[in-house]
Amino acid sequence: MRPMRRPRTSALAALALAPALALGAGCHITGPTSIKTGRDNYNVAIQQTNNEQLLLNLVRLRYRDTPLFLEVSSVTTNFTFEVGSGAGGTINPSAGSTGTVSGSVGYTEKPTVSYVPLQGQRFVTQLLSPLDPRVILLMYHSGWAIDRILRICVQRLGPLDNASRASGPTPDSPPDHAGFFEATTILRNLWLEGAVELGYLEDDHGGALVLQIDDAKAGDPAVARLSQLLGLPEARLTVVLSDREPGGVTLVPRSLMAALFYLSQGVEVPVRDRREGRVTVTRDTDGKDFLWSKITGGLMRVHHQRTEPSDAYVAVRYRGRWFYIDDGDLDSKSTFALVSQLFELQSGEIKASGPMLTIPVGS
What we know:
Elements lengths: L8 H17 L4 H33 L7 E23 L3 E22 L2 H9 L4 H9 L4 H8 E4 L2 E2 L16 H15 L3 E6 L6 E6 L7 H9 L8 E4 L9 E3 L2 H9 L6 H5 L17 H4 L6 E3 L6 E7 L2 E6 L3 H17 L17
Antiparallel strand pairs: 1-2, 3-4, 3-8, 5-6, 6-7, 9-11, 10-11
Helix pairs in contact: 2-8, 5-6, 6-7
């Protein structure tokens, strides 16, 4: 009689363990792979929701609703990697032994996102405190056009008012802005020619911004007109933007909240909401509706419709409507980027940077 064959239990066990060993050997790729697939997704989600939050608060301000900012303070995630294996078989003395092996692998992600509402001292510092003039300087040296910076960040320049009554809830009558806009148009043209520079003057009072116009522009009618608009007795190529200096020009910066109120005037609202008094309707002295695009044009324009827009840069649903910025509206998209940078700069310590102009007091 032939001896009975024993099942190859060792071979079956080896086969059963093979998938698990193979999977275990490949575990090291999970970490890098999760970064490649996860980091971009989180980045896009945070950037998109930041834009949506900014737009939502602009719409809220247009309706005189209370704004709220939630900051994403941290994002952490844990990955759980699971490996399983199994083996089975049959023993037949006459036909031999057969076996089956199986393996499985999977992982789960458990993200933790922390939100911090902007309130208390941080709310005051970031939103209610006037913008530091050095923030304006940093924005200028980051490549932003000088007229865009001044229109968003400055409330008054010398005798020129930049729609200061629009730095809060929508006013009943049109705010003054014509002289300020004419001055910033002149500065934009000089900036495009490379004939104007914005610097910072360190002094005993904490410093001030300085406009320096190229000497080649001496005698230029545009410079003479700019000086006239700023209330200067004669044309100047160097203008200190501070009333603390002899012959200086007063500069009153906006707070970030005031800048948001100002930009919220570019939110278009449904006729029904205007008719039913849900928003303030600004009217000229002759009773006609004032077009806020005269002030916010080139900075911000927010459309609305009932259905979700298909080609929007950013869109939010509020009060039963979709409010959105068109993806081809580069001016509004630029303003979004600038305001986002202002948020970041207001939240930290500002160090002096950019050209430091040494100017004798009284020049």
